[in-house]
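The passage that follows is intended for readers who have already worked through the single-chain material. We present the inputs for a multi-component assembly, then the predicted structure in tokenized form, and finally a short commentary. You are encouraged to pause after the input and sketch how you expect the pieces to fit together before reading on.
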Amino acid sequence: MATPAPFLSARGKLVLLALPMLLFMLLFFFIPVGSLLVRAVQDPELGAIAPNLQRELRAWDGQGTPPDSVVLALRDDLAAAQKDRRAAIVAKRAAEADPKLRPAIMDAAKASLADPQLSVQAVLNLDPVWRDAACWTRLRDVFAPFTDRYLLSALDLKRDRDTQEIVKVAPDQAIFLATLQRTLGVSLAVTLICLLLAYPLAYVVVRQGPVMQALMLTFVMLPFWTSILVRSAAWLVLLQTHGVVNETLMSLSIISEPLKLVYSRSGTILAMVHIQLPFTFLPIYSVMKSVPDSYVRAAQSLGAKPFYAFRRIYLPQTLPGVAAGCLLTFILCLGYYITPALLGGPADQLLSYYVAYYLNQEVNWSMASAVALMLLVVTLVIYTIYARFVPVLRQVEG
Amino acid sequence: MLWLLRKSDRQVSALCGDLSLNFMELIQHQKGFKVSRKLSVSATISLSLLTATAAVANEITITSWGGTYQDGQRVTYFEPFTAKTGTKVVEETYSGELAKIKAQVDSGDVTWDVVDVDSNMIATGCDEGLFETLDYSRILDRSKFIDGAATDCAVGTIVVTTVTAYDKTVFAEGPKTVNDFFDLQKFPGKRGLWKRPYVNLEWALIADGVAIGDVYKQLSTPEGVDRAFAKLDTIKDQLVWWEAGAQPAQLLADKEVAITSAWSGRIQTAISKENKPFAVVWDAQALDFNFWAIPRGAKKLDDSYAFIAFASDASVMSKQSLVSAYGPTNKDALALIAPDVVETLPTAESHMTNPLVYDAKFWGQNGEELTKRFNNWLAK
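Having made your guess, compare it with the prediction:
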């Protein structure tokens, strides 16, 4: 008897089951995040504020002095922008290409609003900037539909104002690569310490009876129940110069001078390890739970020494948990903000600080996107390495 | 959903008041956590609508910085305003994220009617069209405000200053000037500073001999910036950096630092409410303001203006100094405050001998570059 053809193939059913989740991700994750990241190469604001100026500037070939239509578009758009108090946005963005443009644009905006019929010559006479062809070319670049300015800036690079070649920014302005390196370093240190702490702990917990296991798990999960801010503040109380730890050590005459435990890299790492430990622990624990003891016993009955049996039989079987726990911890560490700010020293600013800075303080969302993009790319690279790494582990397992 | 609820509150309660209440109870029940202020206010409005069907319930959303500061505003401004006008105040809190205002203005869906903002936000936000241009004829004559408080986009509500402070039990004869802050010989010990360039660079120049009036002119030149950092270098290994406004008082209390920069109100609270033996050095205090501003495109302009006018009234404003030690921006308010309270305020005459007037506009234009350089300097 022929079985009726299934309405959907197995793969089709899977896709259908995952569809709500995929749609949710698309609508509430990929589209918003994507549209924000696009700002790293595109500034939609300028075109919205000065559409005519953008069109005229792009229609002009950028050679020599601009035609009158460009100057008139500048006059009209800036007057309209000034009325809305938005001319300063144009001035600020233009100042990134040439600082002289900022006052020139603000003056032109005010003059155009005061007299909408200003002649071309009158506009050009407002400021020497407007009689300099090079400045117009720079303004044209500011209005380019796509720009690499923010991405270069996130890599501590810029285009030379005259030659347009990519050069390094001044050393006192180069901040992002060093911060990225520091972010990766701190994340790596926290991940390794978490692993060293979580692995033996998970091993012990798995070997307890059900009651003891539940109790120990509760203790591991405790940090999850308090906010990061409160936990960071609690560490401050413990670790400061005249805090609990130092006072105790000094009263026991173990040390004579208080140790510098806080406002330093070590304070940051300590508090981050505390917060991240459950994230490393849980995947390792769940994998260990599924590893049967019989394999190790079999190895030992065949003559393997305990360490050899652990290294060749037990460890490889738990590696997927180790990889998952470490990946989770590492990626979460990359985004830390509050803890390093409160417990870290002056040199412990991590990259996400700058995302917040550009978002809130400078209101330069393009720059915030560029820095966030850098963080995202690093995360994706690490994830790709992990994704390639895991099938290898599976083979070892099989 | 809360947002929808709030938006349609009036219609929903007019049509089926019972239903809307049940609906809210349902949400409260489902969520199972403490009822937020927003919800409870919505609920009371719905209730009041049920009882007085003819009345039109006005409400405005005011956003401030939370904590004890907003607690003080509630007692001083929000509750008396509701009592006087019948307009309910729905409170929100934020931490000065200009991005949250920009997102509302750009999307055209402005839900905050009045926001308490600081001067850095005004310097950036006013120029970028994030706030309504204010019509002072609907508030109070500009001349009634102290210098710098009445700006095009925002009305000063309090004078906040950055000062230096120390523990009197550490120094019998304490520091008197900003120069003393940089003098490690006379006043040994760690120093606390805010982990931002603002005010730190200004003080460094003043301590290096620059006249207070020339500070920003100097800072606009590369040589001036170098000079400020060179001065900071002289105390760099003694510096502890704070991040949150509550930290300086804590740093002093824990003897983590000997002298620290701080926002004056925080130190004053520690002195008067917690009896800490702290003293404030008013020399070169960096004068700054917090403001009321209306995000551009806010819909209840009449109520927003009514609130700002109410909050700018001298007798109303004078009461805030009782709950938090910030100076009033209305010139007439100072006379209404008890003399012993005035002495704790930055605006007291004896403290105003040589203030540094913080220039938010300067920082708006140079902040990015100087912040990068500052953070680079920190990391070295």
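Commentary: The interface with chain A takes residues 96-99, 102, 120, 124-131, 133, 153, 195, 239-241, 243-244, 254-256, 296, 365, 367-369, 371-373, 375-380 of chain B (CB under 8 Å). Confidence is low (pLDDT under 50) at residues 1-56 of chain B. How closely did your sketch match?
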